Structures are given as structure tokens and as C-alpha cells.
Amino acid sequence: MAKWIQKAGIKKGALSKQLDIPIAKNIPIGLLNKIIRAKAGDTITNPYKVGKKRIKVTRKLERRAILARTLKRIRRREK
1 lies in a domain? Predict the structure, then answer.
């Protein structure tokens, strides 16, 4: 694993808890992209059946979504 990931100070499960998605389930990549595209302060609707239906986007939520998407892409490339 890359050293920057270890130093990132990741709070495991924080994004799942913020979205009300169980940690055991994967967060859909489409939802991550929708959060990233939205501006901080916007309220978005969740098109998926898992988690909250309406999500208020904060800067912290946006940063967590960016990190989650990056880590998903890294994991996909390693396979």
C-alpha cells in the first residue's frame, strides 16, 4: 500500500456513517460521482436504494467521496 494512504488519517466508516450505508455494503460509484460533482451546500437525491434519500453535500463529505473513489480505482487497477 502506498505511504500517502497510511498518512492520510483515514477514519474508517466515516463516509458510510455519514450516508447511512452499512459498512459491509459498497458505496455505489455513481453516488460518489454525484457527490463530487455537486457544490458544497447543495442537497442531492440518492438514486440508489441504499442509504439516505436526500444528502446535504459538505466540503468534508466531498473530500471523503473523492478519497473513496480514488481508493476504489486503485483497488480496481491492482486486480
Answer: no
